[in-house]
Amino acid sequence: MYLCRRIPKHLQSSLKNVKHNKSTIAPEQVQSESSVVVSSRLIEELQGVVGKSNISTAEAVREQHGHDESYHPTSLPDCVIFAENTEQVSHIAKLCNNSRTPLIPFGTGTGLEGGINAIKGGVCLNLSKMDKILSVNQEDFDATVEAGVSRQTLNTYLRDTGLLFPIDPGADASLCGMCATSASGTNAVRYGTMRENVLNLEVVLPDGRIFDTAGTGRRTKKTSAGYNLTNLFVGSEGTLGIITKATLRLYGIPECTTSAVCSFPSVQNAVDTTVNILQCGIQMARIEFLDEVAIDAFNKYSKYDMNVAPSLFMEFAGSDGTLDKQVEVVSEIAQMNGGSDFKWAQEAEERNRLWKARHDIVYACMALQPGSKPYSTDVCVPISNLPDVIIKSKQLIDEAGVIGPMVGHVGDGNFHVFFPVDRSNPEQVQKIKDVAKQMALIAQELDGTCTGEHGIGLGKRELLEREIGEEGISVMKQVKSAFDPNNIMNPGKVFC
């Protein structure tokens, strides 16, 4: 089935749906490392490409595009431009490249490591108007979308086809933005991350060239033809080029789904249960860990009454027969590890309410300290090392005397801590930064990574160098130089 239709306005992931709390950003926090003022001549040339209505130098618009959902201080671009098609993106890139002007791609602004902050000024390129679903191939289980299509918009569109796109980072992020950050989420234990679910990308390079990473129109499930350029751009955080289209894997909606929450006497018991479940080869749809601090925030914010204890949120999907067997085995494993107080959600409405509350956990954590912003960090380790890193991280949080609710996609060894932080309190900020760094160092010592999902952005550049070494950074810089010799693409991110 081939479709080429503009998404209805009520489904668009529009700019006005991006939520930012401007009041929490103090003037002294709006800064750039080295601001580049976009010349009036370049503004005129850009207007010639997109029209006057699609470019703005208004401070309010620039502020909205100068930060994501992280704690990193706002850094304003010099102007914001709204592209409507790939050809316009190509012209914009070429003009910025010729004038050596920084160019920062912008999706929905839901990142957590300052990946869109314009720390060197320049042009912010908003892709939200490129909002077409170009094709859905039901028989082949794939779809091609433009850069401005969000994951919820695609799944709403797919509702009557029996298919879904399962990668769910929580926020309603743009799909090409999810490609750029190699997003993941609660379903990763079953479906993997963006890296496993992107078949092809259309990319605009800094010099304006347009190419498809797997070849024009290619959408095979596997290939051994040449270098894997697709996965080079997945996770590149806008530093190599601008992703304007993505061809993605789709999956059939499971016949039956049920969810459960179970509490445990300790973190060790909860994580041991996760490891036991996976070692038994049980294919879970989702398995999420929340510690007692996160459960307390969860109850208060989303009006639940769960036992305030380390807990697992689990989802099972499959046919009637396989589902019953999965539930039986997992229940036995949980009880062996001291699990109790099972709460089941089988109706779609209650399941959706449960998982919406789980996705709102960042805002629930912020409500523990009114007026705070999230300082969110994540690490990922081999599953066998997960209990060790979680317990050590909780000790660090307790010793520092800060609030640190912990949430984990423990099925793939990944967990997050959402610290509420008062950015006007430098002592608290420094304590939280120290804890986050120590967590990452512990993860790296246990054969893990300093980030499983959030990316490097601004906050983890030093940790990346420690993780892959000087030679690894040198190779990355060579790749960057090959694609972006003038260093205009999102400069200052991933590495300095």
Automatic annotation (TrEMBL):
<keyword id="KW-0285">Flavoprotein</keyword>
<dbReference type="InterPro" id="IPR036318">
    <property type="entry name" value="FAD-bd_PCMH-like_sf"/>
</dbReference>
<dbReference type="InterPro" id="IPR016164">
    <property type="entry name" value="FAD-linked_Oxase-like_C"/>
</dbReference>
<dbReference type="GO" id="GO:0005739">
    <property type="term" value="C:mitochondrion"/>
</dbReference>
<dbReference type="InterPro" id="IPR004113">
    <property type="entry name" value="FAD-bd_oxidored_4_C"/>
</dbReference>
<feature type="domain" description="FAD-binding PCMH-type">
    <location>
        <begin position="73"/>
        <end position="253"/>
    </location>
</feature>
<dbReference type="InterPro" id="IPR016171">
    <property type="entry name" value="Vanillyl_alc_oxidase_C-sub2"/>
</dbReference>
<dbReference type="GO" id="GO:0071949">
    <property type="term" value="F:FAD binding"/>
</dbReference>
<dbReference type="GO" id="GO:0004458">
    <property type="term" value="F:D-lactate dehydrogenase (cytochrome) activity"/>
</dbReference>
<keyword id="KW-0560">Oxidoreductase</keyword>
<dbReference type="Pfam" id="PF01565">
    <property type="entry name" value="FAD_binding_4"/>
</dbReference>
<dbReference type="GO" id="GO:0008720">
    <property type="term" value="F:D-lactate dehydrogenase (NAD+) activity"/>
</dbReference>
<protein>
    <recommendedName>
        <fullName>Probable D-lactate dehydrogenase, mitochondrial</fullName>
        <ecNumber>1.1.2.4</ecNumber>
    </recommendedName>
</protein>
<dbReference type="InterPro" id="IPR016166">
    <property type="entry name" value="FAD-bd_PCMH"/>
</dbReference>
<keyword id="KW-0496">Mitochondrion</keyword>
<dbReference type="InterPro" id="IPR016169">
    <property type="entry name" value="FAD-bd_PCMH_sub2"/>
</dbReference>
<dbReference type="GO" id="GO:1903457">
    <property type="term" value="P:lactate catabolic process"/>
</dbReference>
<dbReference type="InterPro" id="IPR006094">
    <property type="entry name" value="Oxid_FAD_bind_N"/>
</dbReference>
<comment type="function">
    <text>Involved in D-lactate, but not L-lactate catabolic process.</text>
</comment>
<keyword id="KW-0274">FAD</keyword>
<comment type="similarity">
    <text>Belongs to the FAD-binding oxidoreductase/transferase type 4 family.</text>
</comment>
<dbReference type="Pfam" id="PF02913">
    <property type="entry name" value="FAD-oxidase_C"/>
</dbReference>
<keyword id="KW-0809">Transit peptide</keyword>
<keyword id="KW-0007">Acetylation</keyword>
<comment type="subunit">
    <text>Interacts with CSRP3.</text>
</comment>
